[in-house]
């Protein structure tokens, strides 16, 4: 009789039929008008600055959520947008409707999926209604809770507005707090001048999703929204404290107590 060949024990075991881990395709791989802007802005920001990002694991590559950053320089959206793009997500911003009426700029904003917000046509709930399609398509939306550049003299996050909390609670999506520091070396608050050299270092801290469970399922009263917003602002401030190695003031800056304007290009 012919000799039976030796067969390794492993070959006699059932094949591993466990489902393979699905490979996530980065959103930035999908062709879009945003590629044009990203192709210009991202290399430019990379030329004048270097990024150091902590908490990268807290930024999902798929699914819808709110990104809530601190805001203290007019160039913040380009810096934050570049960071998100490098990590595989295309940012969509809630921005004042007037920006969409500017020739060329308005066309690009609309074509790239940015969201116009008109508070005169929808009141305080306008950001929620106009972010509907972003959530439906599993995109992310960047909402600056402060609504404008912080008025705090030392650039700490000031009192927040309720837009980020409204979107998160209305659609049941997470809010991810993001802090960045160093952008003011490129463009200081209220300045129109950009410092190109030497190359600046910008650090980011991406926090874990803000715990808003205590507010979910409740009527969205002013009290609930304000408390949820303060929870978000504390999370952003916590991340910024870690970057700066300092403690923020116990009392958050409130522009209304200092007769200061709270208007800005990016809505919260």
The CATH superfamily title: Glycerol-3-phosphate (1)-acyltransferase
Shape estimate: globular
- Helix fraction, binned, reads 25-40%
CATH architecture: 3-Layer(aba) Sandwich
Number of strands: 7
Strand order of the largest sheet: 1-7-6-2-5-3-4
At the fold tier of CATH, the topology name is: Glycerol-3-phosphate (1)-acyltransferase
What is the first-to-last residue Cα distance?
83 Å
What count of domains describes the coordinates?
1
> What is the number of helical segments per DSSP (H or I, 4+ residues)?
8
How much strand?
5-15%
Gyration radius, in Å: 22 Å
Determine and state the CATH class. Answer: Alpha Beta
Average pLDDT rating: 85
> Major β-sheet, in short?
7 strands, mixed
Describe what is shown at a glance.
Helices cover 29% and strands 14% of the residues. The protein is an alpha/beta fold and 268 residues long.
How does this model look, in words?
By secondary structure, the chain is α/β, with parallel strands linked by helices. It has one domain (28-185, 196-252): Glycerol-3-phosphate (1)-acyltransferase (3-Layer(aba) Sandwich), CATH 3.40.1130. The protein has eight helices and seven strands. The protein has helices spanning 9-12, 34-48, 76-86, 105-111, 126-130, 132-136, 163-171, 222-244, and strands at 49-54, 65-69, 91-96, 115-117, 140-142, 175-181, 200-206. The protein has a seven-stranded mixed β-sheet, sandwiched between helices. Strand 3 (91-96), helix 4 and strand 4 form a beta-alpha-beta unit. Helix 2 (34-48) crosses helix 3 and helix 7 crosses helix 8. The longest helix is centred in the last third of the chain and has 23 residues, at 222-244. The radius of gyration is 22 Å and the shape is globular. The chain starts with 8 loop residues before the first helix and ends in a 24-residue tail after the last helix. The relative contact order is 0.19. Residues 1-19 have low confidence and may be disordered.
